[in-house]
Design goal:
- The protein has 17 helices and 13 strands.
- By secondary structure, it is of the alpha/beta class.
- The chain folds into 2 domains: about 230 residues, no CATH class; about 220 residues, Nitrilase/N-carbamoyl-D-aminoacid amidohydrolase, CATH 3.60.110.10.
- Strands 7-6-5-4-3-13 form a 6-stranded mixed β-sheet.
- Helix 1 runs antiparallel to helix 2, helix 1 packs across helix 3 and helix 3 crosses helix 5.
- The longest helix has about 30 residues.
- It starts with 9 loop residues before the first strand and ends in a 16-residue tail after the last helix.
- Catalyzes the phospholipid dependent N-acylation of the N-terminal cysteine of apolipoprotein, the last step in lipoprotein maturation.
- Pathway: Protein modification; lipoprotein biosynthesis (N-acyl transfer).
């Protein structure tokens, strides 16, 4: 006779209240084909659920969707029959998320994109386990309340680890999806993009609890109210940038160039566009990444043409040289400032390089990637320090190159070193007809809000855009179809945001939360009584 706890065959059946909550029923084959209980179907569903948050980023830019996009993934992981299955749901969901936010890499890296996504997706396996541990079954109100802190903390750990440059950098941090939401940008000035990510995950967790557990709805509502109150407090009390005048900055976007002499074509077009800015009363002109294809020390003719342009405009020009250096071995990407008297000597060499795009990690092992995609044939060389440059009559600017604008710590460091304006020189021409250009430009809004400093995002082929000290858009951006210039009245600001002052404190707080969870789990395991050993069988005497 079958009783609870005996061995029995079972299957999992979806209920109306929770399409991903399953109950055991006897006398059915396990993982029956045609049911969602098939491991392959469940795996595909996990990957699909993980991909959903990508819709909150540009180009769709459904920012509001971020606050519920994780709910299906959470519901799936909480319904896992075992902790191992929950970890697998976390891994496959992470794989889906990484593919979705990096899908524009597929034409360049091909199958290697999936390999990288699968490896990075492993970071979400512990998060899936945490979801089941805290929300599986019918969690007590205390466990549901703890989930509102623990799950955002676990998510921040994933974002922190994958933000390392060697793992691809912080592209697609969940909080960055809120780049056009004023309250979220104000929150970024308090705790950076990390605090916004934590807020988004906390709201998703609360919604999942409300949808599945009546007994825990009170703490869930209380937690969501607390999140709202904290956001309101940040809105009300966080320091705001103090206006400090304006400067005139122009960006030069030459557009797509094709052909064997595209570097020379690009320079000619940039020169033509820059000359059209004469008489615009500019303080600075910014060209995009790789806007100059030759070292200026080796090409005095190009340096002379840039100097003549600076004199004609009576403004400094920040170019970006992508070339082999004459004074140092190797190829560098360098921001170089040119004034009316020639190159000023202010030079910033890019420090953080794009894996596979600008160097191949462990080339001796992974060099084959160059044969299946557009990985770098030769590694670029790294700079060794950030640089704050002085423009004109004393304006201090901090340059960044390409995906360095995705790193919160770099813009924070430049601000602490005295930069009044942040400048990002970028090129996304390889990904011209994808979501990448708009998403890259949107990161400048988050960096501006975090630091309380305006940011100029200048590209070769779009999207070029400018954002004020609170992350607000300044003027109209130049889209990917434009070969043009745009001049902006960029507002300056003084003051120090809480993020610049205290740094990545939400990440440190998340570490404390997870450490306390580990301590509590360890104490619970220590107090759990050991299982009793079965009594030895009695010996029967035979006479």
């Amino acid at each position: 006779m079958d009783v609870l706890g005996s061995r029995q065959r079972h299957r999992w059946v979806p209920t109306w209240a929770d399409a991903t909550a399953w109950r055991r029923t006897p006398d059915a084959a396990p993982w029956r084909r045609g049911d969602l209980t098939s491991p392959w179907q469940r795996g595909a569903l996990a990957a699909l659920c993980g991909a959903l948050p990508a819709l909150a980023f540009p180009a769709p830019s459904w920012w509001w969707f971020a606050y519920v996009a994780l709910v299906p993934w959470i519901l799936l992981a909480r319904s896992a029959p075992t902790p191992r299955r929950a970890a697998l749901d976390g891994w496959l969901g992470g794989l889906g998320f990484m593919v979705a936010v990096h899908h524009w890499l597929l034409p360049s890296l091909h199958v290697f994109t999936l390999v990288i996504a699968a490896l990075l997706g492993l970071l979400w396996a512990p998060w899936g386990w945490l979801v089941r541990r805290l929300l599986g079954g019918t969690p007590a109100p205390g466990r549901a309340a703890a989930a509102l802190l623990v799950l955002p903390s676990g998510w921040l750990m994933v974002e922190l680890v994958r933000s390392w440059e060697g793992l691809g950098g912080p592209w697609g941090l969940l909080g960055s999806s809120q780049w056009e939401v004023e309250p979220a940008l104000r929150l970024a000035s308090v705790g950076g993009v990390w605090l916004v990510s934590a807020l988004v995950v906390a709201v998703n967790t609360g919604v999942a609890v409300l949808a599945t557990n009546r007994g825990a709805r009170v703490p869930a509502v209380a937690g969501l109210v607390a999140v709202g109150a904290a956001t309101t407090a940040a809105w009300t009390w966080s320091p705001r940038p103090e206006p400090a005048g304006h400067i005139r900055v122009a960006v030069v976007q030459p557009g797509v160039m094709n052909g064997v002499d595209s570097a020379d074509q690009r320079f000619n077009r940039e020169e033509q566009l820059t000359r059209s800015l004469a008489g615009r009363d500019l303080d600075l002109v910014v060209w995009g990444e790789s806007s100059v294809g030759h070292d200026l020390a080796d090409r005095p003719d190009l340096a002379g043409r840039l100097t003549a342009l600076s004199r004609q405009l009576d403004a400094d020009i920040l170019v970006n040289v992508d070339a082999r250096r004459s004074d140092r071995p190797g190829i560098f990407k360098s921001s170089v400032l040119v004034g009316p008297d020639g190159p000023t000597g202010d030079r910033y060499d890019k420090m953080r390089l794009v894996p596979f795009g600008e160097y191949v990690p462990a080339r001796s092992l992974l060099g084959w990637a160059t044969s299946v995609g557009k990985a770098a044939g030769e590694d670029r060389r790294r700079g060794d320090r950030p640089v704050v440059m002085t423009v004109g009559q004393g304006l201090r600017v901090g340059p960044l190159v390409c995906f360095e604008s995705a790193f919160p710590d770099m813009s924070r460091h430049l601000t602490r070193e005295g930069a009044q304006v942040l400048l990002a020189q970028s090129a996304t021409s390889t990904f011209q007809h994808s979501w990448a250009p708009e998403q890259h430009a949107s990161l400048a809004a988050v960096r501006a809000a975090e630091t309380g400093r305006p940011m100029v995002h200048a590209t070769l082929t779009g999207v070029s855009a400018v954002y004020g000290p609170s992350g607000e858009r300044v003027g109209a951006p130049l889209g990917t179809s434009a070969s043009s210039t745009a001049a902006y009245d960029v507002p300056l600001a003084t003051g120090t945001t809480l993020y610049v002052r205290f740094g990545d404190w939400p990440v440190h707080a998340a570490l404390v939360v997870l450490a306390l969870l580990c301590a509590a789990e360890g104490a619970r395991a220590f107090r759990r009584p050991a299982p009793e050993r079965p009594a030895p069988p009695a010996h029967t005497a035979h006479g």
